[in-house]
Design brief:
By secondary structure, the protein is of the alpha+beta class. Helices cover 26% and strands 38% of the residues. Strand 2 (43-49) and strand 3 (52-61) form a beta hairpin. The chain is globular and about 35 Å long. The two termini are 15 Å apart.
């Protein structure tokens, strides 16, 4: 198993990410809203096993002291 972590949103299949979130279970997530929330987050991480997206996480921060983690899925 080869695990890879990326932060680039350009290669993400947002429909697939919606399925990953649903299986987590984080409930139903609209792919368009997922794209917008991840692109607008200061910190994001996508987890890959080979070519398959298997997990994600994102955070918002004030860049000084505080951060909040959202949508952590694996």
């Amino acid at each position: 198993m080869s695990i890879l972590f990326t932060e680039d949103t350009e290669t993400i299949d947002w429909e697939r990410l919606s399925v990953v979130c649903q299986r987590a279970p984080l409930g139903n997530r609209d792919p368009v809203q997922l794209r917008e929330t991840f692109q607008n987050s200061a910190i994001r991480c996508f987890v890959w096993d080979g070519n398959g997206l298997i997990g994600v996480g994102r955070a918002i921060t004030d860049d000084v002291r505080y951060s909040v983690i959202f949508d952590a899925v694996l």
